[in-house]
Amino acid sequence: MNKLVIDSYLSELNSSIFFAHNQYTSLIDSPTGTGKTSMIFERALTQDKVVVAFPYTSQVIQQSKKHPDFQCLHDDAEYENTESSKIICTYDKLVKMLNRDVALNEFELHLDECHNLYVAADYRDHVMYHIATSIRNRMYRKVFLYSSTYDPKYLSNYLIVNQHFSVTKNSPIKDNVTCLHLNDQKVTLNEALYDFLRKNMGIHEKVLIYRNNKSENAALAELLEDYGFPVILVDSDCKNEKEITEMLESEEMSKTTNVLITTSMLTEGINLLNSNITQIHYIDKNKSAATIRQFASRPRHSKHETIVWYKKSETLTVKKDVFEEWFDFTDSSLELEKNLNSIIANTPENQKSKFVNHILRGSKMYDRTWRQRGFRNVNGQVRIDYTRIANYFYELDVANQSHNSFMLGDELEKYNFEVYHMDYAITGLSKQDIEDSKEKSRNVRATLKAEKLETITSYRDENIDVSKRYSKLLKKKRKTAAENREIKIAKEWISLKKSNIDESDIIEILRKNNSNKAKFRCSLSLLQKNDVLYTELSNLIVLNQRYDATERSKILIIAEKNIRDKHSIELNIKKTKNNDIHGKISKGIFNTLFNTRSHVYSGKHSVSIQNFDPLFFKTTN
């Protein structure tokens, strides 16, 4: 590790310290506000082919105005090899470039906010896995990672950092943070913050509020707006709204806005240059010292107080033993990966991916250890997912900090905070204030549910091609918040449809937000049906005898009736108007269940069964 000291900014150092070496991967670990982004673009301007990747669209929007000569990839913008080879993009667009076989080995990669490789690897697992894997597989000319909160321990067994530059400030000024403990457990955080701001916020002051809960943020915004505080609400649904894009481009909250409420979209990489930001409130239930450090550093020109709200009773012991789980992972993960792959080794190639998905769904549903996130399907093989493993152990640390403010305080002190603890008693709320707050929360949730139900029922009632609708929405510029929400609904609809779930069931599943459970139950049901159908057909089929479409249809109809009578299971095999089973469908069923051989004689197609190998379908008693 190379330890460097600065007074204020990285520009005090000769940048060749970071870039002149011949090592492949470098980590530049420097405090927030020291000029990492400026240094990235000073370097990028000297390179013919360079990619600067940010985790969020908001960061790309903010940089696009400053660097018009770069290709800026976010939302529906795609890489064009006829345009500039200097690229600013989101993490998602970087993965799309990898999938398009762009010759990235000619490009230098600058990955900003690289701690997201594990922090965001739960809900963005596909993106983080492929970026980390591409770095490990040396798919770029050179890689530079940037962060103020990256902890190498989480990915130390997967992502090798050749050069680690640790930059600290000489005699840094500590920031104040207060862990505020809410005495009244019956009061919501919306009501507590409403009470606090009415008593502690001046008319010319500005306040930032962080919580990863869109509906409760919307309810809080309404509550504060009704009192007279102008609010701007930022999340992934409304990211394309004009007011938000203007704020990102100007790097300032407007003069008419007093309160900014945001989800994780604005926790990092965004500058807010207003000098009158006086308070930052962190009211999310998950309390991470790293995220608090990032969010508290968004204002660049103001002196502000950071307040972390605690509502639940605290626990004095750790919620889960991190070391015990880590030992189990290091001791057994490789052997478990090997054993899982040996189970699927004899599965036909066209069935492997489906079988792997079934195994992994079961693990996600019923395992509450690292195994829940520990593996992924990579081309029909089980592979250890090191980014999600890193996220799992990071989340364990977050869970412990979320339930113990003193444990959080110890971590915050490592990020140059002076930590205080105080109790807060509600004194200014009337019963009507509390009822108004609860009513707004109920109304916001009801409105979002009604909007969602209207969308999914319209898909069915108006016979909408959801795939085409999804594609059309993705290509649209300046999407509204409702359209961004619909994109997520359509994506889930398409995924459930691929799992052969009826439209009426899809509506119920999406309405109740339990699509993952539904997919797993569907997977179990499909395996059970394959099992009983295999057993029944084995009694009706003669090995090596050729069966044309008509004969396959007759056998399947007999088997379907027998299964209905014996097991009360409805296979619901699709039939023609004549109540026959189409040749392509019957052939697909035979190919799924057995090792088959295709034959063509006088233009007539038939299949024969080579042997009764049950493959992996013997799963029930």
Number of strands: 20
Which stretches of 5+ consecutive residues score pLDDT under 50? 614-621
- As a percent range, the share of strand residues is 15-25%
Shape: globular
Distance between the termini: 58 Å
Overall pLDDT: 87
Counting DSSP H or I runs of 4 or more residues, the number of helices is 21
- How helical, in percent, are the residues? 40-55%
Q: Radius of gyration, Cα only, in angstroms?
A: 28 Å
Largest sheet: 8 strands, parallel
Query: From the structure provided, what is the oligomeric state, counting identical versus distinct chains?
Result: single chain
**Strand order in the sheet with the most strands:** 1-8-2-7-6-3-5-4
Class inferred from helices and paired strands: alpha/beta
Brief account:
With 621 residues, the chain is an alpha/beta fold. Helix content is 45%, strand content 17%. Helix 10 links the parallel strand 13 (277-282) and strand 14 (305-310).
